[in-house]
Model the fold of this input.
Amino acid sequence: MIPEQLRERAWSPTTAPQPQPSVHPVATPVRVLLAEDDRELRLLLATALRRDGYEVLEARDANHLLELMGDALVSGSGAPADVVVSDIRMPGRSGLELLAGLRRDDWATPVVLITAFGDPETHAEAYRLGADAVLDKPLDVDDLRIVVQTLASMRG
Done:
C-alpha cells in the first residue's frame, strides 16, 4: 500500500490534512520497532512517534532490531512489535533482508521501509517481499506518522 492510499484511509475528504493527535488511549500502547543506522534521524523519528503515544524501541540496524524482538518474546512483555519501521540500506543485514526473513517466518507484523535510494526496482522488490509501505528520504515525518497510525489502527 502506498502512502497516498494510507493517507486516504486516515482522513476523510472533508478533513484538512494535519498531524493527528495521539490515537492510543488504550491500556497497552502500540509498540513500534524502529531500525535506522543514522543516529540523528533515528532520534527524530522516535521522538515524533513517541509524541503520538507509541512505545518506540530503537535499533541501530536490522540485527539489533531482531535482538530486540527476541528479547521481547523471551521476556513475555507482549508482542515484539505492532509495526516495524526500517531503513533499507544499513550495515550488515538490509531492511529488505529483514523483511524477507520476517515474512519467511510467517510474521504478519506491518513493515514500513524507508530509503534514500528509492528507485522503482527497490520499491517493487519491497512490495513483492511484503512491505506495507515504502517511503523515500528525505522523509516527511508527517507521512511516516500517517502510515504508522493507519497500520496501527488496523491491528487485530
